[in-house]
């Protein structure tokens, strides 16, 4: 858990998890968590090694329940997100929770949404089912690289047009699935991505 310097006045929390490989200490997630805390948001990262989406969603639900139960904070807004498979789990949880309560989640953050395996674009409908199933009131931020071999841009933009939810997309020029850009320092890219996420959350939680 990353906390702002003044943790007594925290009203917004962000939950993040990793993709199919790695863990919660993936550099991009750590960088974003620290940036969020520096801007007054609580950020909770967790590791779930299971590759079964349903299992990952259950783990995500347990973390959401834990945050809701914390007595030391008055959390009014919770955003869920992750990178790659982690954001698929976030979208699935948000869809599940929105069926129970309209204000359970305030938004979904998708870093490198894995629309399909490399060179297997026919999987896009199944992988995007939860995103397309999100309700109108639940905003979504997608950050993807223009060179991501798991997210064909034409297919992704077509899928977004089918969504009921309001979606904001930031395309990282030259970005890979790992959101790295040839010829650019990694920290520079991370700062750019972090700024997009923080600006979007700040707008929605104001």
Automatic annotation (TrEMBL):
What sequence ranges are listed for the domain KANL3/Tex30 alpha/beta hydrolase-like? 12-193
Tell me what this protein is called.
Answer: Testis expressed 30
Record's superkingdom? Eukaryota
* Classification via SUPFAM superfamilies: alpha/beta-Hydrolases
Which Pfam family, an example, fits this chain?
Abhydrolase_11
The gene designation is tex30
Protein source organism:
Cyclopterus lumpus
């Amino acid at each position: 858990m990353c906390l702002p310097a003044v943790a007594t006045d925290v009203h917004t929390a962000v939950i993040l998890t990793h993709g199919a490989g790695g863990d919660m200490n993936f550099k991009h997630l750590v960088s974003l968590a620290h940036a969020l805390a520096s801007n007054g948001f609580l950020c909770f990262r967790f590791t779930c090694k299971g590759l079964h989406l349903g299992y990952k969603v259950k783990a995500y639900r347990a973390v959401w329940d834990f945050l809701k139960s914390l007595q030391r904070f008055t959390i009014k807004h919770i955003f869920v997100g992750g990178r790659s498979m982690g954001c698929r789990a976030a979208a699935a949880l948000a869809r599940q929770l929105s069926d129970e309560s309209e204000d359970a989640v305030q938004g979904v953050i998708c870093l490198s949404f894995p629309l399909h395996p490399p060179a297997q674009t026919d999987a896009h409908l199944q992988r995007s089912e939860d995103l397309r199933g999100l309700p109108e009131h639940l905003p979504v931020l997608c950050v993807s690289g223009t060179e991501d071999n798991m997210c064909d841009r034409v297919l992704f933009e077509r899928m977004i047009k089918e969504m009921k939810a309001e979606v904001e997309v930031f395309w990282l020029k030259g970005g890979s699935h790992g959101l790295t850009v040839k010829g650019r320092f990694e920290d520079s890219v991370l700062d750019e991505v972090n700024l997009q996420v923080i600006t979007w959350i700040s707008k929605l939680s104001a």
